[in-house]
Amino acid sequence: MAQLLDDTRNRWSSLEPEKFINTVIYGTLAERVKLAYTFVSVYTQIIHGLPRTRPLGPEATVALGRLRQLMKYVRACMTSANDILHGDTPTVPLSSYTSEGFILYSVGEIRSSVQEIMQTVAEIQRDELLRYTPMPGSNGRMAGAVAADIQQYMLEIKEILDFAQQYAERRARLNRTLASC
């Protein structure tokens, strides 16, 4: 996992909120979400092509149907997270808009999708039949390995979300303190 380095954290912490939104939310976070979205979309499409690529037994057919359903749900959650970062969010009234509030809103919405994905991936990894379903065209990779990769993407995204939330909460506290003086 690519952990946020201390110098990155320090550099991001010193940014003004508008610059933080552009650099972290619309920059680094959006790139990580897009990468995970692409990965999930590719493997979801591979799962849909499975019956055409090799014959399956009855037990494997049931597992494949369940795996398809789970991967489609993961893709839908990734689509929601990706959409949030591309302006498909409700408009915040200008009178109540703050940069910190926008960051917290975005983080909360994306975090919800990430949590759903993490739960779904855990379900794939817990089910032995799903975990050992081979993925065609991927050099013998099993669905469990793909789920582990998705989980890794989500952990990286979660790390950025955690940092962004801390940043926004700290800035909001500072603003309240300055306003009360």
Based on Cα principal axes, name the global outline.
elongated
User: Beta-strand percentage?
Assistant: under 5%
Alpha plus pi helix count:
6
Main sheet: strands, sense, barrel: none
Mean pLDDT: 85
Series of secondary-structure elements, N-terminal to C-terminal: HHHHHH
First-last Cα distance: 43 Å
| Spans where pLDDT lies below 50 across 5 or more residues | none
Total DSSP E strands? 0
Q: Structural class of the helices, strands and pairings? A: mainly alpha
Report helical residue fraction. over 70%
Radius of gyration: 19 Å
Briefly, what is this?
The chain has 181 residues and is mainly α.
Task: Give an account of the 3D structure.
With 181 residues, the chain is mainly alpha-helical. Helices cover 78% and strands 0% of the residues. The protein is built from six helices and no strands. The chain has helices spanning 6-13, 17-53, 58-84, 99-126, 128-131, 143-180. It is elongated and about 65 Å long. The termini are far apart. The model has no long low-confidence stretch (mean pLDDT 85).
Tags for this entry?
181 residues; 6 helices; elongated
Topology, please?
Blueprint: H1 6-13, H2 17-53, H3 58-84, H4 99-126, H5 128-131, H6 143-180
Helix pairs in contact: 2-3, 2-4, 2-6, 3-4, 4-6
